[in-house]
Amino acid sequence: MIRQIVSAAFVAALLAPAVAQAQDQPLARVELNADHAGEAKLALTASAPGADWQLAGKESAFLEVQVDGKPVTNVVTFNGPGPFTYEVALGRVSAGKHDITVTLDAAKSPVDEAVISKLEPSLAPADDIVARYAPILYGRNLPEVPGAFENVNTDVPILAYHTSAADAQGNRVIEYTVIWSNEDGGTNTPSLMARWGRTTDIEWFYRVTVDAQGNRITDAFQALNHGTEAFNGVREDDHPLIQVASSNNNMVAVTDVATSSGYRFFLETGDRLPDNRAREVMMDQNPWTYGLMAKEMVREGKVETVPDPDTQTMSDQRNYLFAELKKATSYATAPPAGSWAGVALAAKVGDRWYTSNKGVAGLSIERDLAAATTIELPVGTTPANISAIKAFAVPNGTPGAYSIDVTSINRGFKLGADFMPGVSFLNWKGKETLTPARTEVILWENENVVEAPVGGSVPATLSLTLGAPASFGAFTPGVEKTYTASTYADVVSTAGDASLAVGGLGHLTNGAFSLPEPLQVSLSKSSWAAPVSNDRVAIGFSQKINANDALRTGSYAKTLTFTLSTTTP
């Protein structure tokens, strides 16, 4: 039995080059036609052949995005050779047409090649206050960190989001936060894993208060030593310019662009942190962040060679349970400075409990917000091997009488072989109180999990979507030349196998006239031995014109038939 879907392609348009090895030629360009003045955004799908965030000296390619010839943001291709969509802001644009280009900045790039496969510009709604005030973050250049433009290979800003709340006067307070791949200074790796549940760095970096009309009332940024200072720097429209100025990613206001670090990140900030959740949930919503942080740990030698849950050194992050806890603490009397009662979690595997703080009181969780943590487990431990989870109080100093209400474990998962988060198997809600008289409590036991079948069905699908028609442009009479053009096809197949074929080959025609040389077509892939979803096939066209070929004025064209078929539906 053969199932097939047929689409037609008309050879008609040629895209600008998508690969470049120098900055003088754009890798790609696209036009934004803005129907109103507002904040522009860009989804940029790129890859960097030869790049790998885990390999020193090959970490990334460094791109520059320009709008109408003006540089607006840089992009570090931290995902290496795999196509990845980087979401950036472009700033305020006027109504009308705008030219957006992307170039490779070879002077700053660890690797000298990048491929742009898609550019999707968009325009935020005219009343989008979050986009209007989104800050622009200048990259880090510190003398104590080797190399210039250091974010191309360490502590790269990878994600931004915002929170929004009303103040006592009814004004709106918007706070913007950045996630970096790591922090070279500040909190050490064991503390990051125990107290924060990750080795990325997450810092708020700008806060603005606006009135009901969206006008700025006050604003501030996170300064050095985690201070808060009123912003007193340069703005582009309403966007403040802020520069990372410490190895733990604290900042200063940019007061003169000429003396800035010379590169910047204008990240899309439209995502909002869900209420009553730890900041790390934004990583959960962007699961690729876990693999990226793990690669940086390996490259920087922060992973122990022989995993051991009893050491403070971090092991392969796939050995950890990632959890999120929520609690509230009160004291009979305020404890002396430096004293507090924290909480740690423990997981039981076999007959042993493994703890998040590894027996170090200062690595327990102090804050009373939803907080992420991790527990290192023996190599090969699966969720099915974890029989129970408990919380226990950890006095630091002399906190006196305390009461800690533990109210939820919002999630618990392990990373898979690909460093992607697995399905959360922990979700406990209730209220258990820890006191000096009751220092620990079991929150979850595996035997209480009721298994139930769940599934779904997949309809038979065989889908072929073609890209824009390809064009050879203008043929030049009397000159021997082989012209090339390209497009693509996206293949979706739920079948056991599939094949792609091209029909209708022959000669391009112009009325009664046809070209002497036949049209040539090539496919980057034409067969599949398993189901696929949106597998992109590059389609190449070539047409030879000889010096003595007679060419008739007008358009030469031909309709080809692309057939996707299967023998095992």
Automatic annotation (TrEMBL):
<keyword id="KW-0732">Signal</keyword>
<feature type="signal peptide">
    <location>
        <begin position="1"/>
        <end position="22"/>
    </location>
</feature>
<protein>
    <submittedName>
        <fullName>Uncharacterized protein</fullName>
    </submittedName>
</protein>
